[in-house]
Amino acid sequence: MIEIKNLTKKFDSNVALNRMNCSISEGTIFGLAGSNGSGKSTLLRTLSGVYEPDEGQVIIDGEPAFDNHKIKERCYYIADYPFFFNDSTVENMGKLLKNIYSTWDQQRFEELCEMFPIERKKKIINMSKGMQRQASLILAFAAKPKYLFLDEIFDGLDPLIRKTLKTLIIQDVTDRNMTCIIASHNLREIDDICDRIVMLHDGSLLTNEETDSLKNKIHKIQMAFKNSPSVKTLTEMNVQIISQVGNYFSVMARGDIDEIMEKLNSLNPVFIETMPSTLEEVFINEMEGAGYGK
Ligand SMILES: Nc1ncnc2c1ncn2[C@@H]1O[C@H](COP(=O)(O)OP(=O)(O)OP(=O)(O)O)[C@@H](O)[C@H]1O
Asked: Long-range pairs for 201-204 at CB < 8 Å and ≥24 separation?
């Protein structure tokens, strides 16, 4: 269990995380979405014990995470720009990590080396971006951490490797109750795999909800009228117009779908239909609501 309590992290006067509170249950696949510079990487680095909180605490399995060797051994963090030494290979990094992680599984390491199409004896720094990420994933999954933190991991991975990665995460969550936190701008991928999604803006949490209920907060509605209502009428109903072509409207609305439909039906549309909203649409709506991009 990860407990983030009143967590603040500053860089000089820049507040990267602002009194954040959040709990992450074991066996969860947790998505971190957010605007640029909202604090996603800082949060992952603080969770994995790289950064010391300025205020508040990160508690993992009941103990403060910072400078705690026992807790560090349960966590594996793949940074958005993973660092490797000049002569690092998957082979020699495997030998190194075997001595660091008591959970290291050599047989799994061999299987993962077969699964991912990269050369285990090649210098990692000479590999492409996607191959470097694959090297990091082989090492991470062989270490069998209790908590896996992945920063922009889908970036640079081809579709087949993204599918392999998702299968590996789900397997480890199912088989050994691993907890995985994925920070990503790739909302389609986190929608696919995450049980719960947090959205960050300016170092604060905007939402923290189960993926399905998050998508159910906002509704996309298409409707057509013989005599179109005014923009003012729709705005007063808290309906946001996404597009209007003649008498045909595409709108977004927040709240209880039955109440929204009752209000819109009172305008006598000749056609009305709700469509599932995507995580990207929810993200844009949440960020605009927080004043981002305006
Ligand atoms: N090492 C650092 N030194 C100084 N400022 C930093 C450092 N790391 C992050 N910051 C600042 O903290 C804030 C949060 O940055 P962070 O990298 O955590 O955001 P992010 O959500 O991961 O961003 P992005 O989506 O653009 O990758 C930004 O204002 C950033 O400039």
From this structure: 201/34, 201/35, 201/38, 201/286, 201/287, 201/290, 201/292, 202/18, 202/35, 202/38, 202/39, 202/290, 203/9, 203/15, 203/16, 203/17, 203/18, 203/20, 203/38, 203/39, 203/42, 204/18, 204/19, 204/20
